[in-house]
Specification:
With 141 residues, the chain is an alpha+beta fold. A 7-stranded antiparallel β-sheet has the order 4-3-2-1-7-6-5, with helices on both faces. The protein is globular. The N and C termini lie far apart (36 Å). 16% of the residues are buried. The mean pLDDT is 86.
């Protein structure tokens, strides 16, 4: 079984003007960093033309599928904007402002299911290399 999941997803940048637009994104999960999820947006989706990657807790994504979650730079909540679609909104905060991005909830659930196949919930600590990370930290000091 692979230790990394890369899943392309379609996102919708929510904007007031001129209008919302579809943007590609990529979700990544790596057994070597078992608590984290990475969400990357290509250069065409950013204001400065650079790829943007956000890293946040896998648990935050799971919680945000069910109920509003997060209190920092990344906040996630389920939404049903038109009474039909099951979507999730992710709100990102930076010093320059904030962005709202909408995802199909099923895409995120599918990604999480795959991530939990690689590292089951509660099994994250078994995949950490604490001694190796500590040794690297001490070498750099």
């Amino acid at each position: 079984m692979s230790s990394v999941i890369d899943q392309a997803v379609q996102a919708r940048l929510i904007a007031s003007a001129p209008q919302s637009r579809a943007i590609p994104a990529s979700l990544r999960y790596d057994r070597a960093d078992p608590f984290a999820v990475r969400l990357a947006f290509p250069p065409t989706a950013s204001l400065d033309g650079a790829e943007v990657t956000w890293t946040f807790a896998r648990e935050l994504l799971e919680e945000g599928l069910r109920e509003p979650a997060g209190a920092g730079d990344v906040q996630i909540w389920p939404a049903n904007p038109d009474g039909e679609r099951d979507v999730v909104v992710v709100e990102f905060h930076t010093l320059d402002g904030m962005a709202l991005v909408q995802f199909d909830a099923q895409d995120l659930r599918s990604f999480l299911d795959q991530a939990y196949e690689i590292v089951p919930r509660g099994g994250e600590i078994q995949h950490l290399d604490v001694e190796g990370d500590l040794a690297a930290l001490l070498r750099g000091a």
